[in-house]
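Researcher: Next entry in the queue.
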Amino acid sequence: MQISTKSRYGLRAMVELAINYGEGPVSLHEIAENQGISKKYLEQIVPHLKTEGLLRSVRGAGGGYELTKAPEEIVVLQILRTLEGPLALVDCVDSPKICDRKDICPTRDLWVGMQESLKEFLGSRTLDQLARKQEKVR
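Model: Structure for this entry, 138 residues:
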C-alpha cells in the first residue's frame, strides 16, 4: 500500500489549517506557499475535504478555508479515508466474501492484524499533534 500524493498534500493542507485554527480563514495561495504545494493541485483536493465536512470555505475579501472542528478532534485516519477511500491492505480484509479461501488462508490473519494496527495508529494521531510538530520546525 502506498499513500497517494493527493493524501500527502491534503494532509499537509489540513495541518496548515490546524496551525491557523481560530485565526480566520486561510487562502489556498497561503496554504500552497507555506506547504510547498501547487495551488492548482490543492484546488482538486479541497472539494473532497469540504464534501466530507472537514473544512469549510469563507467567501469574500479575507476569505479562504478553515477547519470545521478543532484540530484535536480530527484524526489522520479520517482525512486519509476521505482522500484514499478504504485503507484496505488486501481486498479480502474489507470484503471477505470475495475470497473463497478466507477460512483456510494462512495469511489472512496477518493482513487483518496489519490493517487493524494501521487504523489504530492513524486513528490515534490528530491534526493538533501534527500542527504542533510543524510549528516547532518553522
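Model: The chain is about 55% helix and 5% strand.
Researcher: Noted, moving on.
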